[in-house]
């Protein structure tokens, strides 16, 4: 009973964690993962004109054969850089409404990422700012426009359209930015707990010059285009360091490496627990058969059929398994409460409890069937004599 209870508690929570991790692997980033390349560069020259270098690099990358679009970026999904800011709907708010991630658009980002504006409009050409000319800590004209993701827009303005509203992002000294459009959901970098919702993202018409670029190409040309891009950048500026070069799909695989490791680890634990439980039931049932040989013989002599003997052991196993399962379900709930308080795991859905109970009931009946079947076929005379 204790063995079954412990197995039930662990398997319930392990399967729940596995399902959550599988959900992480299948999450939609909002961008064309299988078409994007990422390059992070830096210059060895301290006085280089970053804005001029960015313009030169973008023109060079966009002209390469097979390139559909190229853009400078401040961050990408699955990347290490995380830009975030609080959002207020009123300058006098003491506490922000939401914390969201920031994507900076140089004019080609939406095309490079494969995003679409689903409400309102995209940025106008005269709304773009150079990052070097914008200082959020100084009073100025502010950022003239912002595009929100669908999830962020619904959360900020649940009962009305976000287009035409204003949000405060850069502090109370800066004027609010008008919302000109709503785009498809775009995933924020970082893990699931970095932001309250991983799709709380917004885009500003600010051109950043930090040496990071995304290139969009066809899936079959990714490797060749990546090599050509690195070679072209090095020819254009020999005083350059390529700090990172990768496909976004590979970055996604690296990002989820821990999730996959946890899944395989917990699957191994579940299989091991089920095997130990099954062999325990088989061993104990075989011991019961040996100890009750005389009892079996007497019952057979009094008219019990093989089916009666088989059902006897199966019912006995079902009662003991059920007692262990009831205790295990209580332990499973308690373990989930502990994991919620220590590791921010979501609450265990009630569906997992009957599913785990059914699994252990089936396992118990399968495990006891062999010993019970051997007991049922013992002839009455042999059973009585062997006792």
């Amino acid at each position: 009973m204790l063995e079954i209870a412990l197995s039930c508690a662990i398997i319930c929570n392990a399967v729940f964690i596995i399902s959550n991790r599988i959900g992480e692997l299948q999450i939609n980033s909002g961008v064309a993962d299988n078409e994007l390349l990422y390059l992070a560069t830096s210059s060895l020259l301290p006085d280089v004109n970053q804005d001029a270098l960015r313009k030169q690099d973008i023109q060079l990358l966009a002209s390469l054969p097979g390139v559909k679009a190229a853009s400078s970026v401040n961050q990408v999904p699955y990347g290490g850089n995380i830009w975030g800011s609080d959002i207020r709907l009123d300058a006098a708010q003491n506490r922000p409404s939401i914390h969201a991630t920031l994507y900076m658009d140089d004019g080609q980002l939406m095309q490079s990422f494969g995003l679409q504006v689903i409400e309102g409009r995209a940025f106008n050409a005269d709304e773009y700012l150079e990052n070097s000319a914008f200082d959020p800590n100084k009073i100025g004209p502010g950022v003239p426009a912002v595009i929100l993701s669908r999830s962020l827009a619904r959360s900020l303005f649940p009962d009305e359209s976000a287009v035409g509203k204003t949000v405060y992002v850069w502090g109370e000294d800066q004027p609010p930015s008008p919302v000109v459009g709503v785009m498809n959901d775009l995933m924020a970098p970082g893990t699931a707990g970095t932001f309250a919702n991983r799709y709380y993202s917004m885009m500003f018409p600010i051109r950043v010059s930090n040496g990071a670029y995304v290139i969009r190409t066809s899936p079959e040309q990714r490797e060749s285009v990546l090599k050509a891009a690195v070679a072209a950048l090095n020819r254009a500026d020999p005083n350059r360091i390529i700090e990172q070069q990768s496909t976004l799909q590979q970055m996604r695989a690296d990002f989820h490496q821990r999730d996959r490791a946890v899944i395989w680890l917990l699957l191994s634990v579940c299989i091991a627990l089920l095997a130990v439980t099954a062999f325990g039931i088989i061993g104990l049932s075989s011991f019961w058969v040996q100890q009750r040989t005389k009892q079996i013989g007497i019952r057979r002599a009094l008219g019990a059929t093989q089916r009666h003997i088989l059902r006897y052991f199966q019912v006995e196993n079902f009662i003991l398994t059920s007692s262990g399962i009831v205790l295990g379900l209580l332990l499973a709930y308690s373990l989930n409460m502990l994991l919620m308080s220590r590791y921010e795991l979501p609450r265990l859905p009630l569906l997992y409890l009957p599913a785990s109970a059914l699994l252990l009931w089936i396992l118990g009946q399968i495990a006891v069937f062999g010993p019970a079947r051997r007991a049922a076929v013992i002839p009455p005379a042999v059973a009585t004599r062997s006792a």
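Residues 11 and 269 are 8 Å apart (CA to CA). The two ends are 28 Å apart (CA to CA).
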